[in-house]
Amino acid sequence: MRIVITGGAGFIGSNAASYYLSQKAEVVVFDNLVRRGTDKNLEWLKRQGGKLTFVRGDVTNIKDAGKLISFFQKADAILHLAAQVAVTTSVTDPRTDFEINALGTFNVLEAMRASGSRAKLIYSSTNKVYGEMLDVKVMQKGNRYAYEALPYGASESQSLDFHSPYGCSKGAADQYVHDYGRIYGLDTVVMRQSCIYGPRQFGVEDQGWVAWFIIATTLGKKLSIYGDGKQVRDVLYVEDLVRAYDMAIRAGTKTRGGIYNIGGGFKNTLSVWTEFGPLLEKLFRRKLMAKFEGWRPGDQKIFIADIRKAKKEFGWEPKMHVTEGVTKLYEWVTTNKVLFM
Length: 341
Known about the structure:
With about 350 residues, the protein is an alpha/beta fold. It has one domain (about 1-340): NAD(P)-binding Rossmann-like Domain (Rossmann fold, 3-Layer(aba) Sandwich), CATH 3.40.50. The protein contains twelve helices and 15 strands. The strands form four sheets. Strands 3-2-1-4-5-8-12 form a seven-stranded parallel beta sheet, sandwiched between helices. Strands 9, 11, 13 and 15 form a four-stranded mixed beta sheet that branches. Helix 1 (about 10-20) links the parallel strand 1 (about 1-5) and strand 2 (about 25-30). Helix 1 packs parallel to helix 2 (about 40-45), helix 1 (about 10-20) crosses helix 9 (about 240-250) and helix 8 (about 210-220) packs across helix 12.
């Protein structure tokens, strides 16, 4: 199998590349190495051996994107993971956010169209395309928020409501990928992902909150909670996400043109602080303190993905329980503390 991964030295990209290298696939990693930790992830991939090709480039640069054409022609699958991933960054710098997420995706799609590729393109979208979901009633249940009438979470039929520049740029890309499948006959799959966490994640305060809380605590940095800490997310371990990519690719025509919510689902949820805080205290064996700040733009009180469609159409569901996954991430961060210094 030949796999091309844009953003292949990032958190999700490096985990996907590592998986496919272990499967003896030919892997092309396309990355500009700008994001923190990508250089370390690339070196880690190189040490694994196998058929790895690195191409330095930026999806926002049309000449760089043109480099992908020859690789797309030979590819069996394409994972488009290159992205600006933080809502707060999109608010302070919406132009860069748009150029990376919307224009960058457009450039990738055009390169794929020009190549005549018959590969399956997996696009990593986000649950932020659903916005605040103001039409869905939310209640407080104990120390967390809950949906009043969505026992399995929000499905793919939930109305789109792009909120924040990040939601707009990712949402535009989401719809471009889907429509290029319809209009130009590309084999595309959109995956609207929930909170992904796991090893090789160099989380920061405004993105990758599960990893960031562990990293910050390990380094003795202060923790800030935006909102009241009762907001709930379904969280998904990165190995389960990569397995979803692989299963969707191997499902062939069953997933062509599909849009799927991919997250931990209702069985793997965590409140940002009222539940995650005690879990961290148990892992670190000490009391932790956090400072509470105001709510951030577009922040949902709760998002839980209904992931039943993915199970029905290509047999995927998470295997890693949230407690086990967080423990694994804690062990990786604390063992590799030097990487964050």
